[in-house]
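Can anyone check this?
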Amino acid sequence: MVILDIKTCLFITAVVAATLSALLFLIKVPSSPYTRKLASTKNSIAVCYFIAFCIFSWTYYRIDFEWSETFPAVMTFIVTAIASSILSYSLMGLLKESSAWTDRSWLNIMVDGIWALGLVNYYDHPSKWVRVLAFASSLVVFIIQCIVHIIVFNKTYIEALRNLEIYYEEDEEHKIKWIRFCYAMMMLTQMFVLVYLCLPRGWMKIYVLFYGLFMLYFAVNFISFLGSHKLLLDAFAYKTLSGSTLQKKVKKVEKVSRKKSSNNDEIIYTDNDLRKLDESLAKWVEDCRYREYDKNRDEIAEELKTSKELIQVYFNEKGTDFRKWRTQLRIEDAKQMLLSSPQLSINIIAERCGFSDRSNFHRQFQKIVGCSPKQWRECGGKFTAADESSRTEPLN
């Protein structure tokens, strides 16, 4: 049985970091307004991996000289601290309207660099209180930094998810869920170094190898996103996550003839407009267009020959909103299909009824019907629930 020493682990992780960094730099992203920011995110991750390669390589080279056995642990700690900042801002850059690389973020990276130099100079200082102060202050700064990053990322993610749902009028978290999952894995990996710092130094080689696996996992997920979402980048990410939904004032007039508004941000509508929209919706339902997903607000409004603002007004007067109404239609469709097509799986029925996310279908079905799709099918559609009478009914 071969037991790897710390030098071998450092060498393996350095090679992984260098390979992934080169691969990310070489990957080309299609040119468009949003993908320029996506390319910037890709390059910042590649730079982060290159920094990790440099630090791990330098540690590998210097470990046989005057350094103590604490040196590899200190350098690994520095890698995680710098990476937590760069990768946090990189992922937030995918979700924010403006670039995540602001003056504050650059200041954060600069402070990390200065702190890293200070820790390298004082971690083996002859004076014990200097060493304790260097380590204690580093741990406190690292923990505070991670907590702040988590809070800011969570706020950014919630805002991006809200913009995404507004743009598509759907529950579309599955499109960006990988970002949150990768971020959670990243922060857990970064903060897990604190556990290894408390263990005997011989255990640090396990964490070094684990960190190499983390970098591989993170890069594979990001590259997979680049490959599987190329067709959605402009529609889903640039317009949606930029929060560029147009807000306009809506004004009702009594006259049947449409009046032009002097304010370009004002929509004028009449009762006749609402009647036409009512007829369009009836035809839209008859054609089962509600089963289609991955359509944004503008596309739906174009299908109905109206504006997205007028759709909102129409459903507000009905005491509901478009998403709830369409979800109700889909669920009613699924209820019938579950009974009439027992040979079809629940997942296929969910997709045919317009749910691109299986978990969302089960959640909405349970919320509206009061039971799971499987229970509904097994009881032959005779399930009764206390909240069944309070569910939203389709519009007449």
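Reply from J.R.: I decoded it. Strands lie at 249-252, 266-269.
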